Amino acid sequence: MRLDRVPAGGRIFIDANIFIYHFTGVFAPILLISFSLRSEAARGLTGVHILAEVAHRLMMIEAVRRALRLPAAWRPSSRAS
Fold it and tell me: Which residues contact residue 22 at a Cβ distance below 8 angstroms, ignoring those fewer than 6 apart?
């Protein structure tokens, strides 16, 4: 369903991707959802498991952006078995 078709006071389930797009600034139309929720045109719902996924994905994005690497002791062995 399109956001403009959600009835006044309707509920919207917010999945992990919406949070990721919001926090990384990748996708501007997410602002429409934010505006709808702030104006109380709709109510946003999510789950604890979604928030855990978002936290994990944001940490992974940060690690990639900072080019963080595993300590040598934690890296998989390059030797073939």
Answer: 30, 34
